[in-house]
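Q: what sequence does this backbone want?
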C-alpha cells in the first residue's frame, strides 16, 4: 500500500506530468486553437495529394485521442490518490510495485492484468 508521505510525492509527479502535457498541447496549438483547427491548416495546401491530406488528418486525430487519453489517465490517478486506492490494481486488487508506479505513475493495473488487457485488444 502507498504510505502518506509517498502520496504527496506521487501527487506532485502526476500534477507535473499533467501540466507538462497541457503545456505541450498549448504550445502545439498556439495556446488558443483546437487540434482540428491546427489540422485544417495542413489541409489548405492545394499541392498535397488526397492521400497526404488523409494521412495528416488521421495523424492529427490520433494524436488528439492519445492526448485526451493521457489527460484522463492522470485525472483518474489523482482521483485514486484522493480515494486511497492509488497503487492498487483496479482489476485484481493487488498492490502495484513501486518501481512500476515510479516509472508510470498513472498506471491502473499490475503488469499481469495490463498484459491480459493488451492481449485481448490485439
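A:
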Amino acid at each position: 500500500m502507498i504510505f502518506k508521505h509517498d502520496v504527496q510525492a506521487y501527487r506532485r509527479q502526476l500534477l507535473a506530468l499533467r501540466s507538462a502535457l497541457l503545456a505541450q498541447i498549448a504550445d502545439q496549438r498556439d495556446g488558443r486553437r483546437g487540434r482540428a483547427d491546427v489540422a485544417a491548416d495542413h489541409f489548405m495546401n492545394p499541392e498535397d495529394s488526397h492521400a497526404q491530406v488523409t494521412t495528416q488528418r488521421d495523424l492529427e486525430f490520433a494524436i488528439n485521442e492519445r492526448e485526451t487519453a493521457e489527460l484522463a489517465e492522470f485525472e483518474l490517478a489523482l482521483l485514486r490518490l484522493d480515494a486511497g486506492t492509488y497503487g492498487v490494481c483496479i482489476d485484481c486488487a493487488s498492490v502495484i510495485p513501486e518501481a512500476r508506479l515510479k516509472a508510470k505513475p498513472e498506471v491502473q493495473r499490475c503488469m499481469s492484468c495490463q498484459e491480459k488487457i493488451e492481449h485481448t485488444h490485439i
